[in-house]
Write a structure and sequence with these properties.
Helix content of chain B: 25-40%
Oligomer: heterodimer
Number of strands of chain B: 9
Strand content of chain B: 25-35%
Largest interface: A-B, 31 and 28 residues
Strand order of the largest sheet of chain B: 6-7-8-3-9
Radius of gyration of chain B: 17 Å
Structural class of chain A: mainly alpha
Distance between the termini of chain B: 36 Å
Shape of chain B: globular
Largest sheet of chain A: none
Distance between the termini of chain A: 32 Å
Order of helices and strands of chain A: HHHHHHHHHH
Number of domains of chain B: 2
CATH class of the largest domain in chain B: Alpha Beta
Radius of gyration of chain A: 18 Å
Chain lengths: 221, 207
């Protein structure tokens, strides 16, 4: 097994073991999505209009839940030193950790989203935009989140600061993602999805480098 | 061990943490097969010196050079590719079994070593499928040792290698260092206890 595959495999394995947070993100996502219709009441037209927005906000919050462990767990137990000394560059390691985070949060969230959209009475036209949007946009949540996680490495219990750094930065994903669902309901174009894709690609391409730089600073600190 | 190092040199190294000088004018030169025991009071900067050697920390002054037959490496991250690291934090995951941890590190370091045989040598062959959280401190240390062997690196940097090990474990550590150095490796160990082998000794004092 190559070093890259080993790291990816281990991070996915840890996410599904005790304290890993993969199932936690899905459970949190499901809970928010189940609570909102109860809170708003049985106003079906209203629910179907806010479905995209609520599910996107819920996805952003759920992805955030397990982010603080992305580098922190390895930082606290010395594993990050060993990764830094391994044949993998820190950039590659950051990229693999982002991929592992997406595979264990973003992807499961995307897969359960059609089920949760039922709670919101989302019309059939909205499903493709919702599922496609989440599939395209959730990698940006993991990628931008990794930068925040790397920056807050040496802050003990940095979860709140992490949220304050990451949430403003993922706002574009939430806006374009929920916008895509709305425009699909109104029979509109694909502009929102294209913007979402551009944002996501940019975030995924750049974040391994910024995250690695922040990890380097914290290791030396 | 791909590129083979002949010599490592530290020239006038100095270290500052949080604006405070930890040590300065640290000099040494080690050839293939040498063992250096780094001694000094708590807070003398032994761990910082090891982190600087590994390239995990930048020195505030001075330089380190690893010299091979036809190469010289000074850059911190390139130096890290020669380092087998045994720190006081072991990076071992509680949620994984002994075997899973060892296999992960062997793969991460693209090791050619045999995981099963190494764990047997280190005395953990009966705990292979035990989650690491049930291991004793000494057994964890042995697992970290297995990883060090599997990393297959030429320069071993050991921070308190004897901590938590029992008598047999200390003997094993000494035998491993000896074997490593006979195979052309270099070992630098920060330690308070005698390693039990012939080693050059460098005492780090207050600046």
């Amino acid at each position: 097994m190559s070093p890259a595959r080993a790291l990816l495999r281990r991070d996915i394995m840890l996410a599904f073991r005790a304290g890993g947070g993969a199932m936690l993100a899905v459970a949190f996502f499901g809970t928010i999505a189940a609570l909102v219709p109860l809170g708003v009441g049985a106003d079906l037209p209203l629910l179907s209009r806010i479905a995209g927005g609520i599910l996107w906000v819920a996805a952003a919050l759920s992805a955030l839940l397990s982010l603080d462990r992305l580098f922190q767990a390895d930082f606290e137990d010395g594993g990050l030193d060993l990764i830094a000394l391994s044949p993998l560059s820190l950039e590659a390691a950051a990229g693999l950790k982002i991929l592992a985070h997406w595979l264990t949060t973003g992807l499961p969230l995307t897969l359960v989203s059609p089920l949760l959209a039922l709670f919101f009475n989302l019309p059939a036209e909205g499903y493709v935009a919702l599922i496609g949007g989440l599939a395209i946009g959730t990698p940006a949540l993991s990628a931008v989140g990794a930068i925040g996680a790397a920056l807050t490495l040496s802050v003990r219990r940095g979860g709140l600061i992490l949220a304050l750094i990451v949430l403003p930065l993922v706002t574009p994903a939430v806006i374009f993602g929920s916008g895509a669902v709305l425009t699909a309901l109104e029979g509109g174009g694909t502009a929102a999805i294209l913007f979402l894709g551009a944002f996501s690609l940019g975030a995924v391409a750049l974040s391994p480098f910024s995250a690695a730089a922040a990890v380097r600073l914290n290791l030396a600190g | 061990m791909k590129k083979s190092l002949n010599k490592i040199k530290a020239i006038d190294l100095a270290c500052e943490r949080g604006g405070r000088a930890i040590f300065r004018d640290l000099n040494f030169s080690l050839s293939r097969g040498a063992t250096l025991s780094l001694e000094g009071a708590n807070g003398a900067g032994k761990t910082s010196a090891l982190r600087i050697m590994a390239g995990l920390l930048s020195p505030s002054a001075g330089e380190i050079s690893f010299q091979g037959v036809d190469c010289e490496v000074t850059d911190g991250e390139e130096r890290g590719r020669f380092v087998g690291w045994l720190g006081h934090l072991d990076g071992i995951k509680n949620q994984m079994t002994v075997l899973e941890n060892a296999q992960f590190f062997a793969a991460l370091y693209a090791s050619l070593g045999n995981v099963g045989r190494t764990l047997e040598r280190i005395g953990l062959s009966r705990a292979l499928n035990l989650p690491v959280q049930y291991l004793s401190a000494g057994q964890r240390r042995r697992l970290a040792l297995a990883r060090l062997i599997l990393s297959n690196r030429q320069l071993w940097l050991l921070d308190e290698p004897l901590a938590a090990l029992d008598g047999a474990g200390k003997g094993l550590m000494a035998a491993l260092i000896k074997e490593h150095c006979e195979a052309g490796g270099i070992t630098i160990a920060a330690t308070h206890d005698p390693l039990g082998i012939d080693a050059e000794c460098l005492v780090m004092g207050a600046p």
